[in-house]
Structure formats: structure tokens, C-alpha cells
Amino acid sequence: MTIERGQSVTFRKTLTVAEQGFFTGISGNLGAAHVDRVKARAMGLPDMAVFELAAGALFSTALSRLAGPDYRIGAISFSFHRAVTVGETLAATATSGGPEGKSLICHLAGEIDGQTVVTGEAVLVPRES
């Protein structure tokens, strides 16, 4: 499969309270902004903050759909420009920046209601046989 520069895939998902609960159990993170609506609202958020790694995980779906089963994530980085909150729909887009040797560089952008709230980069590497 040839992946052209500029080719992109977007994965959209509304992040729910139930998923927040699952990720709390997985991560063990009990930070007030993530698990307590009252405290999150007192901090100025409209609802609990979604765990950044849970929001970032949506990009793994976009990357997988873009590159297919022959690649895996070798490195990934994110910058969150604001908190993503429970109930918001994140559109996670992975765009091919082209090959670099055997690796594939991808640019990441996450939008909510047309506003970019997450940016980043991923390096996909060939999956070992």
C-alpha cells in the first residue's frame, strides 16, 4: 500500500462519562479535574477534563486506518491547546507528511467544532514480521 503525502484520515468520537470511568480504572489517575464534575466546573471547565492520553488514543485509530496493518506507532507527541471535556466530539485527523526512510511521518490535528485543540506528530515504523 502506497501512502501519498497529504493523504489523511479523520476519526470522530464523542467522549463519554462511561469511557472516562474506564480510563480512570486503567490509568489509576484520580485527578479532580478528571473525576469530579463539581471540582472541574469550579476550575472553569464545562465538565470533567478528558484524560489527555484517552483523547490522544483517538489518533491511533486514524493512524491505523491511514497506514494499515504494515505500520505501528514508533513515536508520537501531542500539544493540547485547551482541555478536552467529557461530552465533546473530537475529530482526530492524521495526515501523511511522507516517508522518511522506511518510516512514515504523520501530522496530527484534533478539532472540536472547527477549533484546533490538539496538534502533534507521529512516526510510523514498519511492523516486524
Automatic annotation (TrEMBL):
<dbReference type="Pfam" id="PF01575">
    <property type="entry name" value="MaoC_dehydratas"/>
</dbReference>
<dbReference type="InterPro" id="IPR029069">
    <property type="entry name" value="HotDog_dom_sf"/>
</dbReference>
<feature type="domain" description="MaoC-like">
    <location>
        <begin position="6"/>
        <end position="98"/>
    </location>
</feature>
<dbReference type="InterPro" id="IPR002539">
    <property type="entry name" value="MaoC-like_dom"/>
</dbReference>
<protein>
    <recommendedName>
        <fullName>MaoC-like domain-containing protein</fullName>
    </recommendedName>
</protein>
